[in-house]
Amino acid sequence: MHAQNTILLIIILTISCDEDLKIRIGLPEYICDKDGGVRDVSNELTTIRLLGKDALNVSYNFDVNFRTIGKKCYNDQRCTLMKWKAVRELDHYLKNYPVEKLRSGLIQINNTMFDPGVKYIINVQLISQGKVVEEKQLSLDYVDDAVRAKVKKPMASLLLLAPDTSYAFARYVVNAEVNVCSNISAYYFTWEVTNSQNVTQFPTRSAELAIPANTFQASQTYTIKCTVVGVTNNTPIAESQQTVTVLSKGLLLRLPIKRLTTRRGNDVQIKAYVKDLDNIDGEIRATWSCIETTTDEECQYDSDTSELDVYSGFDQPGTYKISLEISKSEFTESDSCIVVVMDNAAIVEIEDIEFPTNPTTGITIEATIYELRTFCTLQWTAPEEEGYESVDLSTVPGNVNEVINVTMKEDLFLYELEEFSNDTIDKKHDLVLPPPSGNWEGLKGDRKYLFRLTVTCPIMDDPSDNFNTSVSVTSTTDIVVETNSPPVTQSLDVAPLQGVAFITTFTFKTQRALDKDGDGPTLYKFGFTLNQRDIVLWTLGEVTNCEATLPYSDNGVPTFLESCDSFGTCGRLLGPTIQTKLPDNIDKEVILQRFIAKIDAKDYDRGFTEAFIILSSYKSDEDDKIKEVVARKVNEEVEKYVNSDVNDVVLSNVNELMRNINEFNSDLQLPEDVINNVVRLRNKFSDEPIKYTQRQLLSFRGKRASSLTVHDVQNYLEISELIITTSNDLSKVNLEKEYLRKQLRNHMEKLCTNMKKTQVSLELKTVIFSVEKLKKNSLNNFISVPFEANSWQVFGRVKLGSVVKDSKDKCVGKAVFRDYLDKSGITYFVDVLNAEEVNEAAEIVIFLPKNKSMDGTPKCLVYYNNGWRSECKKMQNIANYVKCTCKHLGYYYLEYTQTTNSPAVTSTTLHTHPTTPLPEKILINASESSSQLTSDKTSKGNYDTVSYVVIAVSVIGIIILAVTVRKIFHDDDENEESETFDFPKYAQLHNEEFLNDAHI
């Protein structure tokens, strides 16, 4: 977003005082108006920028001279003297500019100090350690109407805002500030990056170029060229260049698990965090070594990647030192860890830990422990060891250091799965270290922490025996977490604090953020919050100021600043809340031109942001003309692409357009006909691979190929959901549901191929899905479908068994759909991804949750080969689930069939009816029949008494029996979730002494 009344810069003085000192000074080439002289600029500001990493480490001396433009003051001595007086005032102003204001890298001059028709000649001296190290002469023209009328070519100022240095692993952002002095309403930007080997043109037409991490290579210099082009005739208006030198950082190697205890014969996988921070050509050479520390014997395990897989585990108990050395070019790094192999040890798996971590956003160490038994205990601790920062886990919210006693009872599903046995269960036990809050100060930045997961389990040699809790084995896993402190933001000043929305220019200023050496350059994100959405105005590398207009909000506009280092670790600072008012007597069409100009320039990110800001500012306006203009413009843009040819630039633009429609449609509320066209566009381009040209800066390097991300998948699927949730055409809704369902598996396959974490997931309105890497232990354990803590609070479970031979490089795709295919309610999906062969003879065990609102008998259905099949066998009811076995993977649904009860009264059914007098004949027969049951008819009174006692005792006995059965088997479905009792007691029901316990 650009300020509409800001005077920008074009002339750049680049000063390289020595090999390490880099300073740029940006001066305006013209003082003019973007609207071609429509507005009076005399009350605005002209800005001089001090740029470069050393710009604030030197002092400046300014000397101002002038000459008139054209015939201004021609043969007029008084006019000339008045100009000299004004120049001396400007000279004095610059020479005495406050040093504290220079720290923002910004010099602002009120335009009342300049006179139209004058060329200002400014000499700038840079002084370091008392010596003038460089001097340069620049000029500034205050262009008036007379000059503008004589100049035919476009007059424009273009300044590129970006740091002079960067790292290959860091994201690099360049921003273009433009000031068009001619009457050109719409323009766009083209970007080109060159080095000694390649020239790359980027598809974006935005004023911001974001070059992804790992695009540059270290020890090279790149030239970034930006051209401003008019939309009407595609004529270049202005051009500017920026050079960036990429510094070297070497290799990064971390083994986050420092100590691991595992079971003999169990698979062991050790993952290293390896990164080539310089992104240079060639492969990283990895050399693993293994030594048994007691005998110094070498272990024959090896790998040429960052992962060491020890299939079938270690043969013998012992303590093993695993070392990894990586090398590339002249760089070498090494690290090591300890693996302790024991009998009966627990199997622990730790998710990948990124380096470095940001403590301000919280840290989670994800741990899964396999084959746990009742009486096992789990606990996280933070041992105090030299070289590690100490932390008291008892102060962390959530009781993260408490001892967890493992019982089957803790999962009602597993508890009721089978009659008691000594089977094992798997359990996730994550260590969650939240961001600072309340009395919890959080982890400190730039520190190393050691966390230990201790698992203690009893030893059981004979499965038929009870557990012996006096004999146990303890396993420990030590994890190292290294934190990275975000840059310390000094302040955020915004001026003025009040103004007119869309008109007033607000200046955002800060001082250089504090950070340790090697973490720069710093990216500054200036923005505001509107309707709970963060809007970033500028993302600037090493530039500590910007100018922009702001929208209107009833309660003011809160501002913020984020400062991010080269690792992407960011700190956030809230600024003042700015009070704005809507402009008086202004045509909204003028404001909407900001949105239209950005869309015409294919700058969709900023264009849709403008639309959102305008609609939010005028949300109380009953006039729908703004929405109509936005919808019409978006529809025009969509139809252009529907009828266009396919190429890389078009693909990139279409992807950006659809992403913005998804993101902002809840606010824009585009009508159904526009959404229908968006679907046409999606259908045309969805099968085309989108290429990110900026990732192919060095085109001969194959690893630049882009990969599908969860965010990309969300963009595609949300287009479908727009139709499903907003369309009134039922046939279109059903077609779109079918399209989404069929595309989802394709997206899952691509995510599986490029997954770094064990599991990725996405929650939408009509579908929730998850892709999870398969592991050896996964096939014979229960997998949640899609995952337990989802927003719908519904999930099934599946055991894949022998459906595939092994789990290597495979994933399981899982999803739940709402009202899909021809079924109402929840449909479940399970499939193995990237599996070339599937064992069709295998049995898949699926557990589907019961629908308590449905009556009847549940039956499992599976959908494959375009139809529902009733081949699944219902086995039994397990807690709140129905257990079924199936022969096919696919879609599963629990269907309920109604049963007609026989009118006969059975012994298990009690019916209560109104009392009906029996006929006299029947009463007599009944009396006679009863008299035959006793030989002593005179004892009828005693008989009645005994009968009542027997009936009463029978009823009491039935009640006791029912309570006991219910207590043991939890047969009451309505109260299953609330029933609890101690699992060890349940395990000892065969013990007569225990049965006499009053607790049952």
Automatic annotation (TrEMBL):
Signal peptide (residue range): 1-17
Transmembrane feature ranges: 946-965
Keywords: Membrane, Signal, Transmembrane, Transmembrane helix
Protein name: PKD/REJ-like domain-containing protein
Organism, as annotated: Zophobas morio
